[in-house]
Design brief:
It is a single chain. This protein is of the alpha/beta class and 367 residues long. It contains nine helices and 19 strands. It folds into two domains: 218 residues, Medium-chain alcohol dehydrogenases, catalytic domain (Quinone Oxidoreductase, Chain A, domain 1, Alpha-Beta Complex); 135 residues, Rossmann fold, CATH 3.40.50.720. 22% of the residues lie in helices and 25% in strands. The two termini are 13 Å apart. This is alcohol dehydrogenase (NADP(+)). Keywords: Metal-binding, NADP, Oxidoreductase, Phosphoprotein, Zinc.
Length: 367
Amino acid sequence: MPRGYAIEDTKNWTDFKVIDFELKTPGDVDVDIAITHCGICGSDLHTISGGWGPLNVPAVIPGHEIVGKVTKVGKNVKDIKVGDRVGVGAQVGSCNNCHPCKTDNENYCIGDGTGYMVDTYNCKWPDGSIAQGGYSSNIRVPEGFVFPIPDAIKSEHAAPMMCAGLTLYSPLYRNNVGPGMRVGIVGIGGLGHFGVMFAKAMGAEVIAISHSARKKEDALKMGATHFVSTKEDPEWFKQFSNKPLDLIINTASSASVDLKGMLSCLKTGGRLVCVGMPEDEIKLRVQDLAMRGALLGSSHIGSKVEALSMLKLAAEKKVEPWIELYEMKDCSEAVARVAKGDGAYISTDISVRYRFVLQQDLEKEVA
């Protein structure tokens, strides 16, 4: 029987309890995975703390940055076999019939009346089965949402790529980032540090934009060619008047960020893509967009096509996230540290930032 670390009450969001749970109803294209690693995402915290609203199921096992080994495959699974090392991200199902699904945009599934997008946890499958996440021993997922991990990427590095990495890679990929482009990454944390590394790996000139000046050395090591501290220079955006940016990706989860300042950094027709998900609404005047002919948008995780492209790039360019490993049984402590902001920047040891990853021995049952 699969077991996992669950939250039952958003008021006690660090009080994880080990529960037994049922995997989804098995299907012919399903892949069973024994989990070895799971990254901790800010979405986990927003969900279990109630920041995004009440829980949708009685008990939530969070975690959608999953890596493990395949233990069983359905009879119609084509490209994955038992023993493969694979990853699973923030989505585990879609209708497969709507226009987005039929155009390799299943991460934007709008449903077809019989099926719909299924999140990795805090969600239900169309048949009523509860979807539970990666702070657990096992998961069962349709092949379309299972990503083979290249041998060149360590499991602990692949795990945070399943959500944080893909969330940053997708807008870079869709905006054709490459040599000759100037890309700004706002927020150098669990999300943003992926943006710096991937944009650099794709050949762009990368400008790291952070509230904190203490992240400058790290950002430059990750591949940024320029660093801006918005706290030290309240008019930071003026330096881009003559050398504007093609694209800015905003990873901040605060609604109070300076969107107007960001937009003023863009070239005519430039784009600002927000991938951080504030709990509050943002406010912006249309005039701020008009003065640059700018486009403001957002992005939702990524498709399988993008995930495979990201993993190929990471393997070829040796992209390695900055992580700290935790035993899965210590998930309560790790989540509490993320809530304090500790997971975004830890100044005492260069080896323990910017993403937390839970690990467990397959030979040992979740205790």
